[in-house]
């Protein structure tokens, strides 16, 4: 199997589609009506590239099949979580250039909140805890260390920073100001429940999900908006018991979450990343000749690092889902 690497500049041109947003490793497109050339107002195409980021850099070496593995994993999670929340996926019948690594999704109005939950304390949450004894305003027990399991998952939301900037942590009170108390409570409860469920399932497969970021949206029609409308939404007026709060974006992937091997978990030190440790170790080893403190881009990856990293993504998918990974074809 000679994997082909999809190395778009994060987002390739796609016939019949217009690129709307290009993230570090993904792109969001609007399908164009072949007759009129107008954008389809009800669907979007969410495309995952084979690119990988590390230390805030997007590497110039793609990981073959990464986009496909993460897309398939997200689709699997949407099914596992269907009793907790409806999702935005319409179809995996996508253009052959992006087969297996793209999905048509319902076009929603997205809530302006990055919904993060943490089941284990590390990274930015640990830093905040070390300074304040709390995370996102939530008091935590004393004596927690890097990698400590939290008594229960904590909602630690962020703002949606402009492209390329870091999301800023915000308190629950600020989420209430952004989207009103009812939607704030609903997305908090859903985000925590999703991570809780994710860890229940992953634990049986020897995987710990330390934290995750999800995004929610609402169907414009349920907001009384036309499809094309993009006027300001008064989120506080939305009743989550009346509308559907839809789980969108990607869910519980190694790009949106921290995956750790349960067998390697040891609170008190940095945990090894299930998917990115091989990459990180090489980048920070003399072999790479790279200094992550310099603002120079990381070097091209050697073939063995690429293949080992690809194998980690495939292993994570097959371990979690119990299904063999088949490149390029939707599960
Ligand atoms: C470049 C990649 O960035 C993103 O996918 C983040 N994002 C998602 C949307 C979105 N917007 C309307 N409807 C949706 N179903 C979605 C989704 N998913 C916008 N940005």
Task: Characterize the structure shown.
The protein is of the alpha+beta class and 331 residues long. Helices cover 25% and strands 21% of the residues. It has helices spanning 66-80, 123-132, 172-203, 277-283, 303-321, and strands spanning 17-22, 26-31, 43-48, 53-54, 57-58, 89-91, 102-106, 109-110, 115-120, 134-135, 138-139, 149-155, 207-218, 246-248, 257-261. The strands form four sheets. Strands 8, 9, 12, 13, 14 and 15 form a six-stranded antiparallel beta sheet that branches. Strands 1-2-3-7-6 form a five-stranded antiparallel beta sheet. A two-stranded antiparallel ribbon has the order 4-5. Helix 4 packs antiparallel against helix 5 (303-321). The ligand CCOC(=O)Cn1cc(-c2ncnc(N)c2C#N)cn1 binds at residues 21-23, 26-28, 44, 46, 88, 105-108, 110, 217, 248-249.
Summary?
The protein contains 5 helices and 15 strands.
Number of helices: 5
Shape, principal axes of CA atoms:
globular
| Bound molecule types | ligand Q0T
Taking pLDDT < 50 over at least 5 consecutive residues as the criterion, the unreliable ranges are none
N- and C-termini, Cα separation: 18 Å
Radius of gyration: 20 Å
Residue share in helices?
Answer: 25-40%
Q: Tell me the strand percentage band.
A: 15-25%
Arithmetic mean pLDDT: 95
Q: How would you characterize the largest beta sheet?
A: 6 strands, antiparallel
Would you spell out the secondary-structure blueprint of this structure?
Layout: E1 17-22, E2 26-31, E3 43-48, E4 53-54, E5 57-58, H1 66-80, E6 89-91, E7 102-106, E8 109-110, E9 115-120, H2 123-132, E10 134-135, E11 138-139, E12 149-155, H3 172-203, E13 207-218, E14 246-248, E15 257-261, H4 277-283, H5 303-321
Antiparallel strand pairs: 1-2, 2-3, 3-7, 4-5, 6-7, 8-13, 9-12, 9-13, 10-11, 13-14, 13-15
The protein binds the ligand CCOC(=O)Cn1cc(-c2ncnc(N)c2C#N)cn1.
């Amino acid at each position: 199997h000679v994997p082909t690497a999809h190395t778009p500049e994060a987002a390739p041109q796609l016939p019949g589609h217009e690129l709307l947003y290009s993230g570090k490793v993904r792109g969001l497109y609007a399908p164009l009506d072949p007759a009129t050339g107008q954008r389809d107002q009800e669907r979007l195409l969410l495309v995952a590239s084979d690119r990988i980021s590390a230390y805030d850099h997007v590497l110039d070496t793609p990981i073959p099949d990464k986009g496909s593995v993460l897309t398939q994993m997200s689709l699997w999670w949407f099914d596992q979580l269907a009793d907790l929340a409806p999702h935005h996926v319409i179809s995996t019948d996508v253009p052959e250039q992006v087969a297996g690594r793209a999905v048509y999704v319902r076009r929603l109005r997205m809530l302006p909140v990055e919904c993060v939950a943490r089941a284990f304390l590390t990274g930015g949450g640990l830093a905040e805890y070390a300074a304040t004894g709390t995370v996102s305003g939530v008091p935590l027990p004393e004596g927690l260390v890097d990698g400590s399991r939290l008594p229960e998952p904590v909602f630690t939301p962020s703002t949606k920073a402009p492209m390329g900037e870091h999301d800023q942590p915000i308190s629950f009170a600020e989420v209430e100001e952004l989207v009103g108390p009812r939607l704030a409570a609903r997305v908090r409860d859903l985000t925590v429940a999703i991570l809780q469920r994710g860890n229940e399932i992953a634990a049986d497969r020897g995987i710990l999900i330390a934290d995750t970021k999800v995004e929610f949206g609402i169907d414009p029609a349920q907001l009384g908006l036309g499809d094309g409308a993009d006027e300001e939404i008064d989120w506080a007026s939305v009743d989550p018991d009346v509308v559907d709060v839809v789980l969108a974006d990607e869910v519980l992937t190694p790009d949106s979450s921290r995956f750790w091997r349960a067998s390697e978990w040891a609170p008190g030190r940095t945990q090894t990343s299930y998917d990115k440790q091989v990459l990180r170790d090489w980048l920070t080893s003399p072999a790479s000749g790279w200094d992550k403190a310099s603002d120079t881009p990381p070097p091209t990856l050697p073939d063995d690092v690429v293949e080992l990293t690809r194998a980690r993504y495939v292993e994570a998918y097959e371990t979690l889902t119990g299904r063999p990974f088949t490149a390029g074809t939707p599960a």
